[in-house]
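Quick note —
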Amino acid sequence: MDKREFISALAQAAQERRRDTDHRRFIRWTRRITTLRLEFEDMAEQLTEQIPEFSLKVHGYIGVDLEKYRNLARRRRAEKTWLFGVNFKYAQAQLRFVLWAATHLERPSDPTSDLDIEPVVLISMEEQQYEVVPRPKPFYRSLDELGEELLTLREVVIRDGGFMRRRYNPVTNGDEWDDNVSPSIIARDFINEVVRKLGLV
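Predicted structure written out below.
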């Protein structure tokens, strides 16, 4: 084997190893996203059964495939990375959200410098346009952009040890981070805040 063949073979082996590593990381990441979605689905089913005039539905999307995951992990652009939607309805009021994958944007409040290893989960809410009839195509903006104070969840970071959560603190007007948060607590706290915003409790 001459030098050119050796370099080509070595480069190909390294590329295949990297593809394999990406795929394993992607599978792990996807499983964690699934556990989060299943917590929302379980609570949605139970609450809808027990509360009159209340409906909570979770809609899964195709979301993120391996190629989109790779792009996000390398801080490149990826479109249509919706993971799942969460729709609340109580009497005539309705609030709709989508949880989607993105790259982490560094902030002064970051508790560690390695939050951008995996794609993170951000939350967007359908912007209310009550005065427009007929209703236009839904338009979603992140809770960070909307400056929503009653709903504190802003970002979920998937890590080897579990989940981290960034929440907005309206008192300090800043971010707070929670480490080792279970998917059950993430879903429960978010649903509780939305239910309060709807005036259900």
